[in-house]
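Final report, closing paragraph on structural work. Over the funding period we assembled a curated collection of sequence-structure pairs, and we close with a single example.
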Amino acid sequence: MHRVHSYANLPADLAGVSIPSQKYLVFPHREHVSKLHEMCRIAGEWLAANGHEIAKSAGAPAFFERYTEEFNSSTGMGGMEAWFPVKS
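Its predicted structure, as stored:
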């Protein structure tokens, strides 16, 4: 992942968010990007059924998506993950 030290020069259509350093459960996504929301719903159900609780931090997202170098924006395939912060 790339670390940004300042949000000052971000393009107008982007916003900065701080992701806290903590424990995450990472779910790879191997389907088309359009089905990512479906995988996140299933992952959320799995987390709850297996005794995991989402760690909520002020200003931080409930989960985030990570796209690796393998992601192909032309095909919408490859290199996607959903990261869920969990309480230890």
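The mean pLDDT is 90. The chain is about 15% helix and 20% strand. We thank the funder for supporting this effort.
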